[in-house]
Design goal:
The complex is a heterotrimer of chains A (about 325), B (about 375) and C (about 350). With about 325 residues, chain A is an all-alpha fold. Chain A is built from 15 helices and no strands. In chain A, helix 9 runs antiparallel to helix 10. The model of chain A has no long low-confidence stretch (mean pLDDT about 85). Chain C is built from eight helices and 21 strands. The chains are: A mainly alpha (about 325), B mainly alpha (about 375), C alpha+beta (about 350). Chains in contact: A-B, A-C, B-C. The interface between A and B is large, with 104 and 101 residues.
């Protein structure tokens, strides 16, 4: 009698396990295959290529550490590139992605809903536009002739004598603003919803307690934005560090290397100079940085909720 | 004014004080409202104006002429109109009055627009929609004969974009739904570490992998093919899509799944018949955003695709800008409008998911 | 301290008129309850007083001076919300001190007053905690301390007890009442709970759909409700209401005649359960249900005019279900309302039907 039950249980356990394997393959298989193919293998390839001498011909003739030696000793331009990257990331983040985003969220939530939605909609336009088109508009705006939109405004409204050429005269400021206009909207959305989530009674209580408009912002609104601001800071730092699409389209990294940030430097080295191995070696560092930032982001997530145990045991 | 009684100071304000306070409050309110609107309008002008210019030029510019008269005339009509609309919406008491105001303003705007801007409007800039070799036509008008770029038919690029974005969307939604459901609802060894790596992957900056991916596609012969780009983009969208979908699956009550199992369904059947219909919103959100990403994608297609028969809309737009810009602003703008409108429409359709898409599972 | 006057105040939100027209006087030092179902405009009135909302038309007066435009921060009003609205990122001490920060109170005096206020509501030992670490009752006390620390001329309480459990509610009721007695601050309590209103307030303003239905002492509202609405809102268990038609000194309800004085036409008779007795004569019926309520017993009697609730003193039911009884009452306690206008007909009474 007991033997039969045990057999049954064994068989049942076997069926469970078989089903578990099949389900795993059906549900997770495709995702795992794609992830391994396009995340893990490229990282391996990148590290491997970084130890070769691959050039324009895409041929490997031998293994070497010369790429790393070049990074740490031979490439003087790299120092400038890293300096520029830090300035660009910090300026964009500090001015637009956080500060200006907070201001936009505060101001648009201080008006009625209709007006707030309208102006937030306006500031979402750059994010909703394809990058090629968005940069096309910038190229028109900063056109150095008197037909450029900016020059028209400066010359007719402000009475400027000669047209200005931001692309050559202030390229770093230009890429900060062009990226900032897009970056601000992300923070704006997140901060707006965080402000909306503050119970209305807190604002009422603070007003009754004697707080004026600025005091309410300082004592009620900003404390509630602590988490969202960390979130936006971490994620936008990462995305600013690695993205170069807008810069490539707007200035091509120029004039000369004046707006070539680290990520774009990799791209230019690999695809323009054909130094694939050197590009791969440079990329190793930014990949590592990406992983570190992604791990930093862990702090912000509700792990308990993410890892919540399933409540059904059968497979 | 402050007197202490029983250790309790009591404040009594006289009529003068109240009057002074009221006057100050009125002043504060006025200053606050004015500065808020002044600020919002000021910071919106740099954004609105270029977009507005794009549209005006697309419908008014003529080959070889660079002039902005139409833009300023249109601005002169529309700025007062927008302010009037806003004032009507704000000041109207009651729904009927609001509609009356709005209709009135709309009528005035249309009349002014037709009178001032109407005569300059035309559709000639949309020549690229019917004439594949529009670049030569334009050049012949201004005298230059040769151009650097051979353009494919715009509908071909349009089709490529739809194909790329559409295929990518279908694969991402399917694979992400399957994986997210399993991660959300099944217990298996390694689940927790898999979820943690998902968290890293979903924030992982994929652009850093562009060099090795280029080499990889080159080795397996998928460089300059839409399939290669689609696979890469699918893989990149996946972690984020799984992450968002898991949130949607987590929100489905366990009870309905348990009762489906009690009613005799297998887990797979319960997934298809009972759980999946509960997360259609999530699938919709993922679809729209993946589609937009595919439609907008520039850097990977620019790097991985070469032949002009493989061009997507972003590349078409890019080369039109490169090649025709000096010749005809109008046509460049028209292409821009043609490329921009689908994006905007999709975003508007999906705007209520925008927040969910940007935050995911962050702590409150 | 302040006296308050609402002078022809209306309040509109877009197309919705929340308060159509409100006139109200509140004396200095009075404890007034605004009583009504949710959505009757009582919370809106409170926020008007606090300076969060501005009246659409009409004037709000403090001590005879118009304060319509005065900002909330300048009104010197203390408020306790239903959700307590404690600042989550501040300690209890900082929460209570928050109002003093804006009065530029010297640091030492501020600390002294925070301690006093905390002691007054017995949260002196919780000063270093954060609101998230406190129980509902403790949060309630902290909110009260924060409202009182600035020595307001007007204390506003918005459903302050409704998030507390039953026992705590009972003791807080007494505490708030005695605090108010002690401080003498003009206090306005907004509540939907008639027991809270009748036990705490000197005067009750019963509101319905933004209008004042009746204002008076708890006694007035109980004994002489001016309308059917007030009659049914005040009193627990609720008043028995039966509709009938008054002709020639008799109110006819479903064929049963109640001898009546001073009523004609369609009327509604109101009989409070506690004024009814099980008697030998009167309205015949049968006990359908018995609900022991502790010190009282509620009988539901099925009669020809419908189910009638009778509240009888005593902890045990002296009768069994199904028993045939008669319902009797004293003429003086009966209320008669005009069914169409829903107003009380003064000096009109009914007697139990003759056998």
């Amino acid at each position: 009698m007991t033997a039969i039950t045990e057999d049954l249980q064994l068989e049942r356990g076997g069926r469970q396990r078989r089903r578990q394997v099949v389900n795993f393959a059906i549900f997770l298989g495709p995702a795992i295959v794609l992830t391994v193919l396009f995340f893990i293998i490229p990282v391996i390839i990148d590290v491997a290529v970084s130890f070769t001498d691959m050039g324009r011909s895409l041929q490997v003739t031998g293994f070497t550490t010369e790429q790393y030696e070049k990074i740490f000793a031979g490439d003087r331009r790299l120092v400038e590139v890293i300096g520029l990257t830090l300035i660009y990331v910090f300026a964009t983040l500090a001015i637009f992605n956080v500060t200006f985003a907070v201001i936009l969220a505060l101001v648009t939530t201080a008006t009625n809903r209709l007006t707030g939605n309208f102006f937030r909609g306006v500031w979402l336009l750059p994010r909703m536009s394809p990058s090629v088109l968005y940069i096309l508009l910038w190229i028109w705006v900063i056109n150095p002739s008197e037909f450029g939109l900016l020059n028209q405004v400066l010359m007719t409204v402000l009475g400027l004598e000669t047209p200005i050429d931001p692309l050559n005269d202030m390229p770093v400021l230009l890429i900060v603003i062009a990226n900032g206009f897009i970056g601000a909207s992300m923070g704006m959305i997140i901060f707006t919803s965080a402000i909306r989530a503050i119970p209305e009674h807190l604002f009422h209580a603070a007003r009754v307690d004697g707080a004026g408009g600025f005091a309410v912002v300082r004592h009620i609104t900003l404390p509630a934005l602590r988490w969202p601001i960390s979130f936006v800071t971490i994620y936008q730092t990462l995305s600013l560090l690695v993205s170069f699409e807008y810069i490539l389209l707007l200035t091509k990294g120029g004039p000369f290397y004046d707006t070539t940030v680290y990520a774009l430097y990799i791209y230019r080295r690999a695809f323009q100079s054909g130094q694939y191995a050197y590009g791969a070696a440079l990329a190793v560092f930014i990949i590592a940085l990406g992983v570190i930032f992604a791990l930093l982001g862990w702090r912000l997530f509700d792990m308990q909720k993410l890892l919540q145990r399933p409540r059904i045991e059968v497979q | 004014m402050v007197a202490a009684t029983n250790g309790t100071a009591r404040i009594t304000a006289t009529g003068d004080d109240w009057g002074r306070l009221a006057a100050r409050a009125r002043r504060t309110r006025r200053v606050k409202a004015t500065s808020i609107y002044a600020f919002l309008i000021a910071v919106s002008i740099p954004i609105v104006l270029p977009y507005f210019w794009l549209v005006t030029i697309a419908f008014s510019a003529r080959t070889g002429v660079a002039e902005t008269q139409v833009l300023w005339r249109a601005v002169a009509v529309l700025v007062p109109a927008v302010i009037a609309f806003w004032a009507a919406a704000m000041l109207a008491r009651g729904q009927r009055q609001r509609w009356a105001f709005v209709a009135l303003v709309a009528l005035a705007t249309i009349i002014a627009f037709v009178a001032l801007v109407g005569p300059s409007l035309h559709l000639e800039n949309f020549i690229f929609l019917v004439e594949p070799d529009f670049a030569s036509v334009l050049r012949s008008k201004v005298g230059t004969v040769t151009g650097a770029v051979q353009f494919p038919n715009v509908w071909h690029a349009f089709g490529n974009s739809i194909l790329l974005a559409g295929t990518q969307t279908v694969i991402v939604v399917t694979v992400a739904s399957l994986a997210a459901y399993y991660l959300s609802r099944f217990d298996f060894p390694g689940r927790s570490s898999m979820l943690r790596s998902l968290l890293v992957l979903h924030a992982f900056p994929v652009l850093t992998l562009i060099v090795p991916l280029f080499l990889m596609l080159y080795y397996i012969g998928l460089l300059d093919s839409l399939i290669g780009v689609i696979l890469v983009l699918v893989a990149f969208e996946l972690p984020f899509a799984i992450f968002i979908m898991k949130g949607f699956f987590d929100a489905v009550p366990w009870d309905i799944e348990m009762s489906a199992l009690t009613d005799g369904a297998s887990r797979r059947q319960a997934f298809l018949k009972v759980v999946l219909p509960q997360v259609t919103n999530g699938m919709l959100a993922i679809s729209v955003f993946t589609f937009i990403r595919g439609w907008e994608e520039y850097i990977f297609v620019f790097t991985f695709l070469i032949r002009n028969t493989n061009w997507t809309m972003s590349l078409y737009m890019f080369y039109v800008r490169e090649d025709v810009m000096g010749v005809d602003y109008g046509v460049v703008s028209a292409v821009g409008v043609f490329y921009l409108v689908p994006s905007l429409l999709l975003y508007m359709a999906a705007q209520r998911y925008l927040l969910q898409m940007s935050v995911g599972g962050v702590k409150g | 301290m302040a006296s308050i006057e609402f002078r022809k105040i209306t309040k509109r939100f877009g197309d919705v008129e929340v308060i159509p027209d409100m006139d109200l006087d509140i004396a200095d030092g009075e404890f007034v309850a605004l009583l009504g179902p949710s959505g009757c405009g009582k919370s809106t009135s409170l926020l008007l007083l606090a300076g969060i909302y501005l009246p659409s038309t009409g004037d709000l007066l403090f001590d005879g001076h118009v304060v319509n435009d005065v900002e909330a921060k300048d009104r010197n009003v203390g408020i306790v919300f239903q959700s307590y609205a404690l600042y989550p990122h501040m300690t209890v001490r900082d929460n209570i001190m928050f109002p003093l920060r804006f009065k530029k109170t010297p640091r030492e005096e501020a600390i002294r007053r925070v301690n006093e206020a905390a002691a007054l509501v017995q949260v002196g030992d919780l000063l270093d905690r954060r609101p998230g670490q406190l129980s509902g009752g403790q949060q309630q006390r902290v909110a009260l301390a924060r409202a009182l620390v600035k020595q307001p001329q007007l204390l506003l309480l918005d459903e302050p007890l409704s998030n507390l459990d039953a026992t705590l509610r009972l003791s807080m009721r007494t505490e708030i009442k005695s605090l108010q007695d002690e401080l003498g601050v003009t206090t306005i309590l907004v509540t939907h709970d008639q027991i809270e209103a009748t036990t705490m307030a000197d005067r009750i303003i019963c509101m319905r759909a933004g209008r004042i239905e009746q204002a008076g002492t708890p006694d007035d509202l109980y004994a002489r409700p001016s309308s059917l609405f007030v009659a049914s809102f005040i009193g627990s268990p609720p008043i028995n209401l039966v509709e009938g038609k008054a002709v020639n000194g008799t109110v006819d309800v479903s064929g049963i005649g109640f001898p009546a004085t001073g009523a004609t036409g369609a009327v509604t008779i109101g009989l409070r359960p506690e004024h009814l007795v099980v008697a030998d004569t009167g309205l015949p019926g049968r006990i359908a249900q018995i609900e022991p309520m502790g010190r009282e017993v509620l009988y539901v009697v099925s009669t020809d005019i419908g189910h009638i609730r009778i509240l009888e003193q005593g902890s045990t039911a002296g009768r069994g279900a199904g028993e045939a009884v008669h319902v009797g009452f004293d003429e003086a306690h009966s209320l008669v309302f005009d069914t169409t206008t829903e107003r009380l007909i003064p000096d009109s009474h009914v007697k139990p039907p003759a056998p």
